[in-house]
Design a protein that fits this description.
406 residues, single chain, four-stranded antiparallel β-sheet, 35% helix, binds manganese (II) ion, 15 strands, globular, binds glyoxylic acid, alpha/beta
Length: 406
C-alpha cells in the first residue's frame, strides 16, 4: 500500500466541511473511526493491533519481547486540536505504516520487533492534559487524577472510556511495555518554517522547548449591561483582557511565547456582565527558568488586575513538560543514516509538544520533521507537499531498517 492510498482513506474522517479543519477528539465517534482505520491498515500490512491499558494503539510486526533486542517503535497521534490540520499527528502514523509497507516489499526481515503506535489525546483537546496517553503510559500523570478529568460537557475520562468500550480502571504506567522498547522515532510535520527556509524536505529534532497550560478562572458578578454603573461592576472580562495584554508583553520581554487561545465567558449573554471567565494560558520558553518566570509574571498581572476590578482569580496547572533534549546518540545515528540515504537533514529545535517528548524520559527517542512550506499548523491551512511526505517515508524507512537490523 502506498502512502497516498493510506492517506486518502484517512482524510475524510472527522473533517468539518464548514472550516476545512479536523475535529478528532479522543473517545468520540471520529476517534473510533480513526482507530478502525488504524486496525484495518495494520491488518492489511500483516500487523497485529493491540490496545495498551491507556487506550494507545500498537500495531506489531513481530512479537513484543521477541527478536534480538527491544522493539523499534514509530508513530504519532490521530487526535486533533479544534479545526486542526490534516498532518499534525496523522502524517507520522500514515508514514509509519507506509515505511513498514516499503520494508515488507523490499523483503526486509527485522531482527527485532517493529511497532506502529498511535497515542491517545496528544492534543489534550478534550480533557485538557496534552499527551495524556503517553503521560499515563510513562507514569507522568496520576491515573486517579486522570480519571476525574472532564470535558467541556462534564463527561469524565472514565465515562468516555467506558462508552468507547475501554476499561478506565486499568489506566496507569506500564513498565513492562516500556522496557520492551529500544527506541521511539516520531515523524511529524514541522510546525514552523525552518526546513522551508533551509530548502530541506526532512529534518531531525534537537529538542522541545519547555511548555505548559494553565487554566485561569476569573469570578465576578453577573449584572445588567444596560443599568449597572461602571463603578458598580465586578466584571471578570476586564482582568481577563488585562492578563492577555500582560502575557503578550511578558513573553516579548523574555524571548518566550504566551497564548490565550481558548476562553469561555459564563453565562455568555450579550446583554449581561459575565459572572465568570475561564481562560487557558499556553506558555512556552527556551528554558525551564524562563518559563517559570514568564508564568509567575503573568499570574502576578492577573492577580493585580483581578483585585483592581473586585474580581477573584484562581489558577490550575493542566500540564507541563520540562525542556526535552532528545537522545544525542540516536539523533547522530539518524543524521548519519539519512546522509547515507541521500538526505542532508538539518537539526532543529521546536516549541511544539509531542508524545516523543514525554517518552524521552523513559526510552531513547528521536523525531523526524517533514517540511511545512508556510509553517502554519493547528489550523486548516496546515500543509505539506505530497513529494515531501514521500521523502519523509523514505527517510523513516531508512531509519527503521537501520535500527531494526541488529
Ligand atoms: C501540540 O501540538 C502542542 O504543541 O500543543
Ligand atoms: Mn498539535
Ligand atoms: Mn502533533
Amino acid at each position: 500500500m502506498t502512502f497516498a492510498e493510506m492517506w486518502s482513506e484517512l482524510t475524510g474522517i472527522g473533517r468539518i466541511e464548514l472550516t476545512g479543519g479536523y475535529r478528532r477528539y479522543s473517545w468520540t465517534p471520529a476517534d473510533a473511526a480513526c482507530r478502525a482505520w488504524f486496525a484495518r491498515t495494520a491488518s492489511d500490512l500483516g500487523l497485529r493491533t493491540d490496545f495498551d491499558r491507556n487506550g494507545n494503539l500498537w500495531a506489531w510486526w513481530g512479537r513484543p519481547g521477541g527478536g534480538t533486542g527491544p522493539a523499534v517503535v514509530t508513530g504519532s497521534h490521530l487526535d486533533s486540536v479544534p479545526d486542526g490540520g490534516a498532518f499534525d499527528g496523522p502524517l507520522g502514523v500514515v508514514s509509519a505504516f507506509a515505511a513498514v509497507s516499503q520494508l515488507r516489499s523490499d523483503g526486509f526481515r527485522p531482527a527485532r520487533p517493529i511497532a506502529v503506535a498511535a497515542f491517545t489525546e496528544e492534543e489534550g483537546a478534550r480533557f485538557g492534559v496534552a499527551c495524556l496517553g503517553s503521560r499515563l503510559l510513562t507514569g507522568a500523570v496520576d491515573p486517579a487524577v486522570a480519571r476525574e478529568l472532564r470535558d467541556h460537557d462534564g463527561v469524565s475520562l472514565v465515562e468516555a472510556m467506558r462508552a468507547a468500550g475501554r476499561d478506565p480502571d486499568a489506566i496507569g504506567p506500564d513498565d513492562e511495555l516500556l522496557a520492551g522498547i529500544g527506541a521511539y522515532v516520531e515523524l511529524h510535520i514541522e510546525q514552523g518554517s525552518g526546513l522551508a527556509g533551509l530548502g530541506a524536505p526532512v529534518g531531525v529534532a534537537e529538542g522541545i522547548w519547555p511548555h505548559g497550560r494553565w487554566r485561569l478562572d476569573f469570578a465576578g458578578r453577573a449584572d445588567h449591561a444596560g443599568t449597572t454603573r461602571l463603578a458598580d461592576r465586578r466584571d471578570p472580562m476586564l482582568p481577563y483582557a488585562a492578563t492577555v495584554i500582560a502575557a503578550r508583553a511578558a513573553a516579548g520581554r523574555c524571548g518566550a511565547l504566551a497564548t490565550f487561545g481558548k476562553v469561555r465567558a459564563e453565562p455568555g449573554a450579550a446583554n449581561a456582565i459575565s459572572s465568570s471567565v475561564h481562560a487557558w494560558l499556553d506558555a512556552r520558553a527556551p528554558d525551564d527558568a524562563v518559563l517559570e518566570q514568564l508564568v509567575t509574571d503573568i499570574w502576578a498581572a492577573a492577580q493585580a488586575a483581578a483585585s483592581e476590578h473586585g474580581v477573584t482569580v484562581s489558577r490550575r496547572r493542566e500540564s507541563v513538560t520540562p525542556l526535552v533534549s532528545f537522545d544525542a546518540g540516536l539523533r547522530e545515528r539518524l543524521v548519519g543514516v539519512l546522509a547515507t540515504a541521500g538526505f542532508s537533514a538539518p537539526v532543529l529545535a521546536t516549541g511544539a509538544g509531542h508524545d516523543a517528548g514525554v517518552l524521552a524520559a523513559r526510552v531513547p527517542t528521536a523525531m523526524l520533521f517533514v517540511r511545512n512550506p508556510t509553517g502554519v499548523s493547528h489550523s486548516p491551512a496546515e500543509h505539506a507537499e505530497m513529494a515531501d511526505c514521500e521523502a519523509g517515508v523514505a527517510a523513516l524507512t531508512a531509519v527503521l531498517a537501520d535500527l531494526a537490523t541488529r
